[in-house]
Amino acid sequence: MANIHDITRDRWMLYGPLSRKGYDWWWHSMTAENAETGEKKAFFVEFFTCNPALAEDEPVIVWNDPEAQKAGKRPSYLLVKVGFWGEEKGQLHKFFSFKDKDVSIHKTAPYSIVAHDCKCSEVHTEGHIKVTPEEAAAHPEWMSDAGEMSWKFDIHKDISFHVGYGASKFFRAINAFEMFWHAEGMKSQFIGEIVLNGVKYILKPETCNGYCDKNWGGDFTSPWVWLSSNNLKSVISGKKLENSVFNIGGGRPKVFGVALNRKLLGEFYYEGKDYEFNFSKFWTLSRTKFDCWETDDEIHWHVLQTTKNAKLDTQIRCYKKDMLNIKYEAPTGYKKHNRLWNGGNGTGTLKLYERSLFGKEKLIDEVYAEGIGCEFGEYCDPEE
Fold first, then answer.
1. Is the terminal CB of the chain with fewer CB neighbours within 10 Å at N or C?
2. Residue 2 contacts residue 162 (beta carbons within 8 Å)
3. What domains lie within the chain, and their CATH numbers?
4. Which secondary structure element, helix H or strand E, spans residue 251, and what is its range?
5. In the predicted model, what is the mean pLDDT of the chain?
6. Using one digit for the tens of pLDDT, what is the confidence trace for 95-152?
7. Residues 261, 252 contacting (CB under 8 angstroms)
8. Helix residue spans in 31-86 (DSSP H)
9. pTM of the prediction?
10. Using an 8 Å Cβ cutoff, are 147 and 90 in contact?
């Protein structure tokens, strides 16, 4: 359901079993403008938490330590992770222990995280990360590039993607799914600034293409798919769609440890009207087919979603030169996603149809999308 806000789903979820084998993160992606040239650049800011009940005096990072993995040791830390896409691209990481006296996480809604000078909440985030080339080389376990980025901006979450009962309090309490998702701000406004390696970028509500979501659970999914943007223009009318956003995500969900067939959740909020494609709502007759593939230069996504009332045909591509192989360590202590392509500069088209009795279809609009947040990856060995 679009635009049903529920900040209880944004609360910190690492209690009970997930406190010892679980992750929870808050993700923000956006487009900012160079303060001098006006050139646009895509960024993200993420606060990632893992296994707080296993905290030690220093952050515990396991993925690069085979002996620790054999011994069954699991990671524990709060990671502040920022990144930037395009010709200049990278991801910068700053780890904290949950035992650090300057780290605090508010455990109920509305959420709030403070880790020294890095802060995040429903309405604001700010912080600073600097990783020197020498530090990046000396600490491969940090999984970080070298660089420096500071940020400070306010957040207003306009339109949400509420996935329904699949992430309800009951299903959360019994940890029914291995990976949960909630997008409280799939269309968001950001106001503030980012400074990357000494260059200032401005975030403006009308051009920021803001997005906020969170994922949590006991492990990641494979395949892993995500596509979203609110920088949309009607091909038919030529007009910018000011009150629209689409969001598609998922892969192969696991319920009580049993993997389902490849499935995606999707939402197209088109000029105030909601078109939802949610496999858990069986009464809508929702069906999804998707294919993702890699060429020498690009990553491609083709997603076809239908219900008894609508069809959405989405075709997206993003240049690999603008993308990251984004790095995450699972709460199990293993890093199985070694080619998780992640970008913020995808482009493509969405064709939205109205469906009626006997499968008749009428084109509502063809939409061109830019600045698409996009992700695709499947588990593979590091050597591949």
1. C
2. yes
3. 7-377 (2.40.370.10)
4. strand 245-251
5. 93
6. 999 999 999 999 999 999 999 999 999 999 999 999 999 999 999 999 999 999 999 9
7. yes
8. 66-70
9. 0.95
10. yes
